Amino acid sequence: MDKPTVSVAILGQTYNIHCPKGHEAELKESAEYLDTQMREIKASGKIVGLEKIAVLAALNITHDMLSGRKFARSNEQQLRELTSQLDAALTHDTKQANE
Fold first, then answer.
1. pTM of the full predicted structure?
2. Which domains are assigned to the chain?
3. What string of DSSP letters covers 12-80?
4. Do 46 and 31 touch, CB atoms closer than 8 A?
5. How many CB atoms lie within 10 A of CB 61?
6. In the prediction, which pLDDT does 62 show?
7. CA spacing 20 to 30 A to 64: which of 22, 32, 72, 92?
8. Alpha-carbon distances of 35 from 12, 48, 61, 91, 95, rounded to whole Å
9. What mean pLDDT do residues 81-87 have?
10. Rg of the Cα atoms in the chain
11. Residues 17, 5 contacting (CB under 8 angstroms)
């Protein structure tokens, strides 16, 4: 499969990244998000060193992603429970209507 090279800039450094065809925009959006996160950490002045900034940004992004997954799973469980309750109520109503 042909993988185009996309240039992205993160904290003033340019990186040429190979990515699957059709995913260039997603890669650029991801790089922009990472760049923003790293710039915010750097601007805080509390963390020194590109490697430490990158690791902290990766941890923050991973935490946000995992929290989002937990929230989505919680919502899915609530939806299943509501669907089950609705099915039970409809079954009960149908039985009463047929009696």
1. 0.66
2. 5-98 (3.30.160.880)
3. TEEEEEE--TT-HHHHHHHHHHHHHHHHHHHHHSS--SHHHHHHHHHHHHHHHHHHHHHHHHHHHHHHH
4. no
5. 14
6. 93
7. 22
8. 9, 16, 12, 54, 60
9. 81
10. 23
11. yes
* 24, HSE (Cβ side, Cα atoms, 13 Å): 9
Q: Tell me the C-alpha distance between 24 and 22, whole Å.
A: 6
Structure tokens at 30: 């991801």
Q: What is the pLDDT of residues 30-66, one digit of tens each?
A: 999 999 999 999 999 888 899 999 999 999 999 998 8
Tokens (6 digits) for 96: 């009463």
Residue 11 DSSP symbol: T
